[in-house]
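Reopening this ticket.

The earlier resolution said the output was attached, but the attachment link was broken on my side. Pasting everything inline this time so it's all in one place.
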Amino acid sequence: MNNLSRMRIQKPANEIFEAFVDPEKIGNFWFSSSSERWEEGKTVTLRYEEYDAEGDIDIKEIQEHKKIVFEWAGNHKVTITFVQEEKGSTIVVVKEEGFDESNENLISQLLDNKEGWVYMLTCLKGYMEYGVNLRAALVK
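Inline output:
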């Protein structure tokens, strides 16, 4: 079982890719901080200062300006793909796999995670296209 979210952002793939892997940039749209630059084989600590929370991700694959694959939350695999379009825009695709289909809370987990990915992509779009920081405003 997987979860898929997509959004078109009016910036080139290389700039959007850098927003994820550069610890100085990720705080403008997703986590408040990243312990280091994302590179294949590394374990990176992501922090949410607002919620006093942090977690590790294991970077499994990096294809420069094209794809990032990491694992988090136990056995969840996330693939972020950057599809460069001819007119300078990029479609960012987030696919999360590893949901337990026998879990009685599967539907609520899928919806909750989908909401999170769409919110992150919306914050990314705001940051990349307009230079605004919308992160940490989602209320549960």
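Reporter confirms the inline version is readable. The chain is about 25% helix and 35% strand. The CA atoms of residues 15 and 78 lie 20 Å apart.
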